[in-house]
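S1.2 Input.
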Amino acid sequence: MNPILKKLIRDYNYLNETLDDVKEISSVAEGEFRNALLVLDPEAVEALAPKNQVQVDIEIKEEDTEISEITSNDDPKFKKLFRKIAVKCHPDKLGDINLSETKFLKKAYEDLNDANTNHDWGMLLKLAMELDIEFDELGIDEINNISENISIIKGDIARYENSMAYSWYIKNDEDSKKEYLAICADIFKKSLDKD
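S1.3 Output.
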């Protein structure tokens, strides 16, 4: 395997796992942040109403649509590997296997569909490697696709890690957490005054 591709796949896998970890941390952080903010200043919590979240979600989705001009349906190499993987992990093909293997293959099938939807070569290759499926040598377009997706994952990680809730959650001592929470509450209340 091309050493550049090997490194890209390793980077992609590492960052993908990091994103999963960061999402998990962020989920916990968000809940604890809201609860702490509610205790400190209930009025500031109004600024966290769902209307703001809808706008953020729409902005992220608009960015994600610009990933690639080539779709999975236009890429014969992608379709070929997709089919090989689907044969191994399609829910209708699972049969009598143990529970942990079933969970793994169901997750693989979900990831496969996400890879197809997003034309994500990194995810497709990750699945092929996990399922011990051989694939053809990739060209510059596929390598560029993986690089683009790595950039997107890095951006997603940064968005989570730069959130106020995440920043508050990872503070080391209670005094700095309280101070930061008060600053956030003031920012939220000022945003309510502008509306």
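S1.4 Remarks. Residues 52-68 have pLDDT under 50 and may be disordered.
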